[in-house]
Every structure is written in structure tokens, then in C-alpha cells.
Design goal:
With about 140 residues, the chain is mostly beta strands. Helices cover about 0% and strands about 70% of the residues.
Length: about 140
């Protein structure tokens, strides 16, 4: 949600999220886990290179929370739920076409980077987590 502060520049706040089913981690050993949920919230800027045109770029600085569900009980799987918080950055570029006096529709390519420190719920387990989350989205914008 945001508003135009000068022609072509929109400032606002946004929430971005991702759910990853059964991720596999590769380090010294392979770990399988349950659902991984990434939630972010923060201010954004969206700049239309030509206010009457459709090409735009956006960026956001984000507060991030990450929750990791435990995997199964077999060796090599995450054995407990863990969660934590950190920061994120979002960059995107898109193009929109006008479909009405105040409405446009388009596509947006976006990548979100998240870094967080996670702690296990049942033990002293602590680890650092980072991820790049790419997305290709359809957009509907009221100007």
C-alpha cells in the first residue's frame, strides 16, 4: 500500500512472503526439513521511469521472520521446529499497461534476499539462515 509523492515515485509499505515445501539443505551433509515460511514487512519505493509509461523498478528494506518445521525422524533430517528474525532486501522490475483511467495490469520480476538467525524450540540449536527468493508476478495497480 502506498501513494505517489511526486510524479513517477510511489512510497509505501509492503509485506512479502514465501512458503517452501520440504526444502533440502546442502552443507557438509544433506538435511531434509518440513515447511519453511519466510515473512517480511517494510517500506518500499517504486519508481516509474516515465509516469505515463509502464516500466518501473522497485526496492524495499525489510524486517524478516523465518520459521522452519521439523522434518521426519530419519537421520539427516531437521529434528525440531526453529524460528528467528533478521533482515531482507527486495528488488524488482516490471511493466504495466493501462486498462482504465486509473488502473493498470502488468508483470513484475522480483527477487528477495533474507538473512536471519534461527533457534531451535527444544534445544540450544542456533544457526544462520540466508536465502534468495525469486518471483514472477502478475500486477494490478490502482493509480
Amino acid at each position: 500500500m502506498g501513494g505517489t509523492v511526486i510524479p513517477g515515485l510511489v512510497l509505501g509499505g509492503g509485506s512479502y512472503g514465501a512458503g517452501i515445501f520440504a526444502p533440502t539443505y546442502e552443507d557438509d551433509e544433506s538435511l531434509d526439513a518440513g515447511l519453511l515460511t519466510i515473512s517480511t514487512l517494510g517500506p518500499f519505493a517504486d519508481y516509474y521511469l516515465d509516469p505515463a509509461g509502464g516500466l518501473h523498478v522497485q526496492a524495499a528494506i525489510l524486517f524478516a521472520t523465518v520459521a522452519q518445521a521439523k522434518g521426519g525422524d530419519e537421520l539427516g533430517q531437521v529434528r525440531e521446529d526453529s524460528s528467528g528474525s533478521g533482515f531482507g532486501l527486495m528488488l524488482g522490475a516490471g511493466y504495466e499497461i493501462w486498462i482504465g483511467e486509473q488502473w493498470s495490469v502488468g508483470a513484475l520480476a522480483r527477487v528477495t534476499y533474507v538473512s536471519a538467525s534461527l533457534e531451535g524450540e527444544d534445544s540450544e540449536l542456533e544457526y544462520d539462515f540466508s536465502a534468495f527468493v525469486p518471483a514472477l508476478l502478475a500486477t494490478f495497480t490502482y493509480h
